[in-house]
């Protein structure tokens, strides 16, 4: 069968002939489209954006204002109670996690005989060279390190080879490598200090 | 699955291990290849259990810096992964990495998982990093684990702040340094912090 077949040619010509959908076609299509329910988020957004008029009596308005005032007063009272330090018993909500802002911790070691002292720990990949300590008077070595809240193991590296735990800080539990470390815990508060003397 | 979902899934699949891979890359040049591969395996396994990679890699770096051999480094990393995993199980999937590190130290110190679970149940939205660290530090100074846990729990029930918990720990440390028995020092300081309460532990005799 080919396009040259007269029967096929007539059917094709009939199918290609433009047809008018009629005068009410557009209206019928739009009605059918509107009948399809919109997705839930779109309906919710449209509902939220639709302006409304609320009827409120003076008495009802006064009641709502009073409720809002009571809630605000309760919030202020609770906040004050939480920050009070009468018997050292602030609300436990004060413990809520704070943004991890770094605090500067000063590490100190008294080592008059040392030629060099560096700090190594979880905060610098136990590098041993990135945090050299400054020698102050009387063999006091110090370095300031900004640390975000957390618990860090560390040690002093004396003369480039000897690992020394901080005598003034808690020891890290479980001496995994035969050379003890110390621990510093940084909370979300004021700057801290860690250190002791050899 | 349409193309967009497939793309998101591929990105997530690629990004998730990337953090752990980046952490393990920190070991390059610090440990030999075999040790690095073994640590990477522990990190991968731990990551599937919700344990962060960074503290594990830090432990390996500590071992490398202190001159430990590969086997010892891997053993230490493996042990830490276990502690962190137990802390994670007790504290729940919402625990922060800092809480897990402190919780892992508490677990290693001998604090029972039930104590961590109780803490999380009581304070579901607060950071437990400092309380857990104080528990571990007290045990490190010789305070029995149960005494350390009870002290912190009681103080928290009274609503003390993190700074006050740290001050409590420092007071106990001073007493121990002066010669008081560790458990007794914690009990006495707890009594002092809680007027009107009586400890079940007798007061610690002080050396002159």
Report what the structure shows.
- The complex is a heterodimer of chains A (198) and B (208).
- Chain A is an alpha+beta fold and 198 residues long.
- Chain A has a domain at 103-197: Immunoglobulin-like (Sandwich).
- In chain A, 29% of the residues lie in helices and 23% in strands.
- Chain A is built from four helices and eight strands; from the N terminus they run ααααββββββββ.
- In chain A, the strands form two sheets. A four-stranded mixed β-sheet of chain A has the order 3-4-1-8, with no helix packed on it.
- Chain A is elongated and about 110 Å long.
- Chain A starts with 5 loop residues before the first helix and ends with a strand.
- By secondary structure, chain B is mainly α.
- Chain B folds into two domains: 1-91, no CATH class; 112-208, no CATH class.
- Chain B has helices at 3-25, 33-48, 54-65, 70-91, 97-109, 113-122, 129-140, 145-157, 162-177, 182-193.
- In chain B, helix 7 (129-140) runs antiparallel to helix 8.
Structural class, from helix and strand content of chain B?
mainly alpha
The CATH topology of the domain at 103-197 in chain A comes to: Immunoglobulin-like
Name the helicity range of chain B: over 70%
Question: Judging from the principal axes of the Cα atoms, what is the shape of chain B?
Answer: globular
Give unreliable regions of chain B as ranges. 8-16, 198-208
Strand order of the largest sheet of chain A: 3-4-1-8
What is the H/E order of chain B? HHHHHHHHHH
Our Rg estimate of chain B from Cα atoms comes to 21 Å
Unreliable stretches of chain A (pLDDT < 50, length at least 5) are 75-98
Helix and strand element order of chain A: HHHHEEEEEEEE
Arithmetic mean pLDDT of chain A: 75
The CATH architecture category of the domain at 103-197 in chain A equals Sandwich
Biggest interface between chains: A-B, 38 and 51 residues
Tally of DSSP β-strands of chain A: 8
The end-to-end distance of chain A, rounded to whole angstroms, is 105 Å
